[in-house]
Amino acid sequence: MKIIIIGAGEVGFNIAQRLSEENHDVIVIEKDPNKISHIQNVIDVQAVLGSGTNPSILNEAGIKESDIIVAATDSDEANLIACFFAQHLTDYITKIARVRNPDYMKHREIFNQDFLNIDLIINPQSEMVASMLKLMEVPGASEVIDFVDGRIKLIGITIKNNSPLIGQKLSSFNDYSQAILVGVIVRGEKVIIPSGQDTIQPNDLIYFVAHREETPNIFRLLNLREEGLSRVIIIGGGETGLALATSLDTTNINTKIIEKDSQRCLELAEKLKKVVVLNGDGADREFLIEENIADVDILVVITEDDENNVLISLLGKALGAKKTVTKIGKLSYIPLVSAIGIDTVVSPRLSAIRAILQYIRKGKVICVAPLKGEGAEAIEFEALETSDIVNIPLSKVKFPKEAIIGAIVRGEEIIIPKGHNMIKPHDHLIIFALKGAIPKLEKLFTVKLEYF
């Protein structure tokens, strides 16, 4: 597949890197010579110096022979114009644009077939807010990702130092009344596809699959406390803070939003009904104590300053907040802040990358979710009737060692697979895979499963 990416910022760079590793033909258009030089030195892609809004540059990049164009610059207008020219330069190309301005999102009709005809609009803010709301559905989790239209949840849990799970072999989970398969362990900066002989260690981040209705039972089986959510404090009253507060405004969750700018507080108060708006500094220790931070179930820190967000989150944890959700813009910071005690990190750039990768991987792939640290992915796809892996025992399928089937979803049933289980046509499979296994999976499922 030939893919043009416009913009070599963090989003464009990471998408180009991931797709290049999967042997796609990637062309990156960037007007900054320094970024062009960097991307040529690091990634095996073709780089074109120039603006993606210039039709001549698009033609030079091979727009007429390309399958997909991803406009991922920091300028919404440039992204839209690039898609506009792509529409007129070639008839058959999939157009994806990153659009951050919420005012544009209020007029989605401009993106439809009658005008710009953009196939996918990625709004990082809405993607990130959706991620935070999913986390609030399972307060005890570090990460929650929906599969099978939300019926199945991929849950990431951080193992605390006093957890009774420490030292347990994963094979011991087979003794529980409900089978549980841990598909990925993130241990520091190392990502592991585990076997039954692996043991759980303090501070491990483990991922497992659960039916939405069975989540409380699994938490109980694993001796994990799954407490209800009653109090939330949001620090940062920007557009993301407002969007999250607006979603919580319709719930019974006691929510407060803290913002330093007094004028912005007035604007927030006019738009919110139940959420309490406070004018103050989220980095002020005494202020947080006055607001009973120790009784807060989730402290959401989403100002525009990464360093400030980390410091406020650590302060909130020290003062007793049960859980922190921290916005981090720079992707390179994510592994570092996770290692110093930040519970959960959300990133607008990472949200955009996830949404774009999911759309690009065509065929029967339903959902793609890069996991924490970006070293692994969880992938949902549908098995086709013509596949060589249907109707034979899994023990006879030559599956990459760096990947594991975490669950088979058959209608409303979730099957935690064992060697004797068989995949049937139209089953949805949830696979955990290290980045290096993606090309192997692609080769395994080529044609038969239309994997990519």
Structure, described:
The structure is a single chain. With 452 residues, the protein is of the alpha/beta class. The chain folds into 4 domains: 2-122, 3-Layer(aba) Sandwich (Rossmann fold); 128-221, Regulator of K+ conductance, C-terminal domain (Alpha-Beta Plaits), CATH 3.30.70; 231-321, Rossmann fold, CATH 3.40.50.720; 361-445, Alpha-Beta Plaits (2-Layer Sandwich), CATH 3.30.70.1450. The protein is 29% helix and 25% strand. It is built from 14 helices and 22 strands. The chain has helices spanning 10-21, 33-42, 55-60, 76-89, 102-105, 124-137, 215-221, 239-248, 262-271, 285-290, 306-318, 334-339, 348-360, 438-445; strands spanning 2-6, 25-30, 46-49, 68-71, 94-98, 120-122, 143-147, 152-158, 182-187, 190-192, 205-211, 231-235, 254-259, 276-279, 298-301, 324-327, 344-346, 365-370, 376-382, 403-410, 413-415, 428-434. The chain has a 6-stranded parallel beta sheet with strand order 3-2-1-4-5-6, with helices on both faces. A hairpin with a 2-residue loop joins strand 20 (403-410) and strand 21 (413-415). It is globular. Residues 447-452 have low confidence and may be disordered.
Compact overview of the structure:
The protein is α/β, with parallel strands linked by helices. Helix content is 29%, strand content 25%. The protein has 14 helices and 22 strands.
